[in-house]
Amino acid sequence: MEQFGAYRIEALLGRGGMGEVYRAYDTEHDRVVALKVLSQHLAADAGYRERFRREAHLAARLNEPHIVPIHRYGEIDGRLFLDMRLVPGRDVAAVLAEEGAMTPARAVSVISQTARALDSAHADGLVHRDVKPSNIIVTGSGDDEFVYLVDFGIARSTSDAQGPALTQTGAALGSFDYMAPERFLEQPIDRRVDVYALACVLFECLTAQRPFAGDGLATLMFAHLNTEPPAVSSVRPGLPAALDDVIRRGLAKDPAERYATCGEFAAAARAALKESGVEARPVPAAPPTSITPMPFIPHTVGFSQPGAPGGPATGYPQPLAGTAAGLGGGTATGYGPPPPPGAGYGPPSNPGAAYGPPSNPGAAYGPTSNPGSAYGPTSAPGGGYGPPSDPGPPGFPPAAPAPGGGRRSRLPLVLGAAAVVVVLVVVGVIALTRGGGTPTPRVASDVTTAPVTTEPTPEPTPAPEPEEDLRAIIPLGFDGAGCRTGDPSNDGELAVLDCGASTAQPGPQDSSFYLYPDAETLDGVFLRDVTGAGIAELPAGTLCPDAQGYGYWQADGEQVGRIACYVDEGTQNAFLIWTEEEFNAEAIVAIAGAGQEGLVTLMEWWRQNANSDFVRP
């Protein structure tokens, strides 16, 4: 039996141009997984390696039932890999090969569930770029048939969205049969390339034929760029004619003429069924799993320094190491403490399933993705607040009592509107307003001395004020220059800044940031605040915003800080609080009166690293 790092290889599930997918036993976590091992030449491509690391991290942050989380990803013995949940089922390519075209209700159900996965990825800034039947897995049957979208292996951030993205070997990433016209033209891409591909898949589900056929790449490319697809009702008489216009718009050559989102496309398809008197299938519940969902970002294993394209890679020193044998043997550096068992994703099912021709039935697959930005231990929704003590500002209800004696809690309780400006009242202490103010320029901290001469020795340059230290690390989702000094809460903070609304919307309407002298003080303040406000710890396997509470969050397998999310029952104000130990900093953001929907908005906003990560000055 072959061994790949901690994985015992049990069976080959699929093989294609990008690598192989195996059924494997994870000896560290005592579970069977789908292990995608990429071709060795891809690890030698410095550009691809870096994009793989970046996009695997992004894909791992996704949190949607139709996308199964990644357990971990990284590099072992010069091979890039993804460890994902093994999902039993068949891919749509196999279903079509065995059963022929689907009924309209089934086809639209498959597309609708896939659209949910894609819209979730798009909300996190990720474009799949390889939507096709062999990357859509179905489990169950009838109205309970559940769909997973798999293989985010070539997914790409919308911030890096250019054309076909050739590897060093010149192979375009993605399947030409489902590739949008703009990708052939090296034009910038966005989520609408996935809308186009999804329309191709719906066409194929309804007819068992692809919308465009050709003997070679040139013919196929010409068809995608210039040829109008046939109407599905003409290819398969008896299909609802109302679907013709839906698919035609989804396959528009100009992205601006397509549906704006995959969800909009799916909704139009369901409406076409209803118009034709065909009853759409109900949305099925997610099938149960015996594996506890992982409450944070997956573990990252042993990335080595990428070399020049085609060249060898050199290793980064890592804190811990494990051994790898089989499939090349060698050492996998970078194993940290193993994360708790996670739900996971699973790659392609049967041979060829997501990487080449349609796969065979009966194999197992696994998609990609994981809870948002990830938290550790978590628990039930936080409760309400005790009776008021300190009076709040005029026009607002009084604040909650201060836990622990005279120290005043900073947890925001009240959001009110004054004209158009939303004001966040933090337990009667901090009124967060959109502020002006001009920041004091940062001063260099170096001390310069002059040689012994008749001239005086320069005095040491004053150290930066704590407020300017805090202003320098404010996340990029806020205008640091526009932040104003906040009121102290007497809990040991060095500085407080009120920064108003995020510049990235939809997102927080108000915000406050705190700087502490050390991580111990930071953690103590966070815990006193959340427990004093009745916010409970989230139990393992639950996540914001599906549950309210607090816990840890991780990135790249390492604990970053704590996080809490909750909705005030009285005001329905949504709050999100997080800390970053590296910076000894804490953030509190809120949306007034938005309830659970506001909490979802805050979490989607927070998962975009650029919005919420404190930055190194």
Topology record:
Layout: E1 3-4, E2 7-16, E3 19-26, E4 31-38, H1 40-44, H2 46-60, E5 70-76, E6 79-85, E7 87-88, E8 90-91, H3 92-99, H4 104-123, E9 126-127, E10 136-139, E11 146-149, E12 156-157, H5 181-184, H6 192-207, H7 217-226, H8 232-235, H9 242-250, H10 262-275, E13 299-301, E14 304-305, E15 314-315, E16 321-323, E17 331-333, E18 364-365, E19 414-418, E20 421-426, E21 430-432, H11 466-473, E22 484-485, E23 495-498, E24 510-515, H12 519-532, E25 549-555, E26 558-567, E27 574-580, E28 585-591, H13 595-606, H14 609-612
Parallel strand pairs: 5-13
Antiparallel strand pairs: 1-2, 2-3, 3-4, 4-6, 5-6, 7-18, 8-10, 9-12, 10-11, 14-15, 16-17, 19-20, 20-21, 22-23, 23-24, 24-28, 25-26, 26-27, 27-28
Helix pairs in contact: 4-6, 4-10, 6-9, 9-10
Mean pLDDT: 72
Tell me how many strands there are. Answer: 28
Which ranges are low-confidence, i.e. pLDDT below 50, for 5 or more consecutive residues? 157-173, 289-298, 303-458
Q: What's the number of structural domains?
A: 3
| CATH second-level architecture of the largest domain | Orthogonal Bundle
At the fourth level of CATH, the homologous superfamily of the largest domain is Transferase(Phosphotransferase) domain 1
- Overall shape: it is globular
Query: What proportion of the residues is helical, as a percent range?
Result: 10-25%
Strand arrangement within the widest β-sheet reads 1-2-3-4-6-5-13
> The CATH topology of the largest domain is what?
Transferase(Phosphotransferase), domain 1
Q: How many helical elements?
A: 14
Structural class: alpha+beta
CATH class group of the largest domain: Mainly Alpha
**N→C terminal distance:** 50 Å
Percentage of residues in strands: 15-25%
Largest β-sheet summary: 7 strands, mixed
Over all CA atoms, what is the radius of gyration? 27 Å
